[in-house]
Design brief:
single chain; 396 residues; mainly alpha; Seminal Fluid Protein  PDC-109 (Domain B); 3-stranded antiparallel beta sheet; two-stranded antiparallel ribbon
């Protein structure tokens, strides 16, 4: 709806638009909008979806202002989130989905039981661990810190005390072969505690082979963020659907949260100076978030490339982008259909004493969510008045 329409409706209702705002709202150097423009802007910030009694027209306006693709080209010129800001959000969101997509190839390899030697002690790095192995009468099915100093071939500087180690060669009955050992690094333990203990005990790996340490961090984080659960649970016909579902869900939440942060609805009714300060604060917060998203990207991309994970990463990325847009469209259509009927305000009728509520039973189910400057019932009463007096209907 255009500001001119808001102004005409308010004049028809006998309302003073300036008096509906805090004092000195339109004074000073920070004034950007006229009263009618600010009314439209604030109603858009509230995600107003019922502008009239025309379901299909209101749905079109709703999607034009809310849909991630349509809004980029058709959003209202007074919408709190400008088209340039929307474009910036979409670019950042692409990198966010790429970040999530890059973590799934890591997660798919986490917990696989693959352990190898690192560092220069023993046989050096790059040798696969052999499980189970028996040493000093004890059998081990995973890397261990026990019996580290019981044999001369394991006796090294005290700085390495407590480090995980494993055998890389066994003889008869799985007996460890003297000298065939190395410091141990595994992609992930089977539990949260094992994961972090393994990672911490291998912290020195960072100095010699940083990618292993970062991989360990990602694997441990996968436990707590549910990535590994999605990766292991959603398998269908050999297809790994976990990455797509997980990235799609996060992409949807990230996009919705980003726009709410850019809207800064809590300051839209404040003075121009406070409103501008709030919006700039939102931009700064989003800028910091963007930096945090972009920082690990070069390293993760290089790691994926060197380890042959780019194909699976791009598969998750593309499928999650498509499915998230489909999910957002479906959610918006369902939400609009549900809320449009609930937000039906009380009808108005014109009498000799002015515009009053109709005597019909109230249809307004959620009055708190229809606290707009111009309600659809007021707009429809205005249109009826113009039709009855031979004036063409004002367009939205």
């Amino acid at each position: 709806m255009q500001p001119e329409t808001y102004k005409a409706v308010c004049e028809f209702l006998g309302r003073d638009m300036v008096s509906e705002f805090p004092p000195r709202q339109f004074e000073g150097a920070h004034v950007e909008f006229s009263p009618e423009e600010l009314m439209v802007r604030q109603d858009l910030a509230k995600n107003k979806l019922r502008w009239s009694d025309d379901y299909y027209r209101d749905r079109k306006y709703f999607l034009n202002n809310m849909h991630p693709i349509l809004a980029l080209f058709h959003a209202h010129r007074l919408h709190v989130v400008t088209r340039k800001e929307r474009a910036a959000v979409y670019i950042v969101q692409i990198f966010f989905v790429l970040l999530v997509s890059l973590t799934f190839p890591f997660a798919s390899r986490c917990g696989s039981g693959n352990c190898e030697t690192v560092g220069s002690a023993g046989v050096g790095e790059g040798h696969p661990c052999v499980f189970p192995f028996t040493y000093q009468g004890e059998t081990y099915n995973s890397c261990t810190t026990e019996n580290y100093f019981k044999d001369s071939d394991l006796t090294i500087t005290g700085a390495h005390q407590g480090r995980l180690w494993c055998s890389v060669k066994t003889g008869n009955n799985g007996q460890h072969v003297d000298g065939e050992w190395g410091h141990c690094w595994c992609q992930q333990g089977n539990t949260h505690d094992q994961c972090w203990n393994n990672l911490l005990s291998s912290a020195e790996v960072y100095k010699a082979k940083g990618h292993r340490y970062v991989h360990g961090v990602l694997c441990c984080a996968a436990h707590y963020t549910g990535v590994d659960w999605f990766a292991q649970t959603f398998q269908m016909g050999g297809l790994d659907l976990g990455g797509t579902l997980y990235a799609s869900a996060l992409n949807t939440l990230f996009m919705l949260g980003s726009f709410q942060l850019m809207i800064c609805g809590c300051v839209q009714k404040q003075s121009p100076a406070v409103r501008q300060c709030g919006e700039q604060t939102g931009h700064v917060i989003y800028g910091i978030l963007t930096i945090l998203i972009l920082l690990p990207q070069p390293y993760l991309i290089m790691y994926a490339w060197k380890n042959g994970l780019l194909a699976s990463t791009m598969c998750v990325f593309l499928s999650s982008k498509i499915s998230s847009y489909m999910a957002i469209t479906a959610l918006q259509l369902i939400a609009f259909h549900f809320l449009w009927g609930l937000l039906e305000p009380d009808s108005l009728e014109e009498t000799d004493d002015g515009i009053k509520k109709s005597d019909k039973p109230s249809r307004e189910c959620m009055p708190a969510l229809t606290d707009y400057h111009v309600k659809s019932s007021e707009y429809e009463a205005f249109c009826r008045h113009r039709r009855e007096h031979g004036t063409s209907k004002t367009v939205l």
